[in-house]
Amino acid sequence: MSTLDIRAALQAVLERESTALYVSTCGYITRDLHNLADRANHLYLVGSMGMAAPIGLGVALGQPNRRVVVLDGDGSFAMNLGCLPMIAEHRPDLVHVVLDNGAHESTGGQRTAGLGDPAAFARAAGYAAAYTVDGVREIAELDLRDTPALVHVRCRPRSHPAGRRVALTPQELLARFRAELATTPA
């Protein structure tokens, strides 16, 4: 079992991919990301479980000169495994991070169904690279030149309360993200 805190994993990803566009799944992961670093290049999906990967793919296809980081939880990832081959087929500059703590924490902490090996799923679907890590140093040292890439991050169950909720409405979040997209040529 990993001892890595989800917030530490998110911070390591943010430091590594500071200029990327982010699409974050709903729930506590979005709240953690928002509280760590609320930025215009972050699209928080509020109430859209399982949709971070397909929306991230759309963003990556629309912004081929920018890296896109998708932040998924293990439960959210399991809801949309059919998206993996589609992502692989299009070969976007996309890093798909699956933060796996074995629980649906945003809905009460229920245990998630066993995922098996998310990195193996990604490789079988055709991702260029896939890794499983359980430490901050491992995240920093990953070779993510070949994309799409999946990074399965094994984390411990949450031991801290969720941070404050995202105050912007989904419409405001989308407008802010679109304005960010307009600042960089596609």
UniProtKB/TrEMBL annotation:
KW DNA-binding (keyword) present: no
Domain Thiamine pyrophosphate enzyme TPP-binding residues, every copy: 44-136
InterPro entries the record matches: THDP-binding, TPP-bd_CS, TPP_dependent_decarboxylase, TPP_enzyme_TPP-bd
Keywords attached to this entry: Decarboxylase, Lyase, Thiamine pyrophosphate
Coiled coil location: none
Highest rank taxon of the organism: Bacteria
Lyase as UniProt keyword: yes
Name under which the protein is recorded: Thiamine pyrophosphate-dependent enzyme
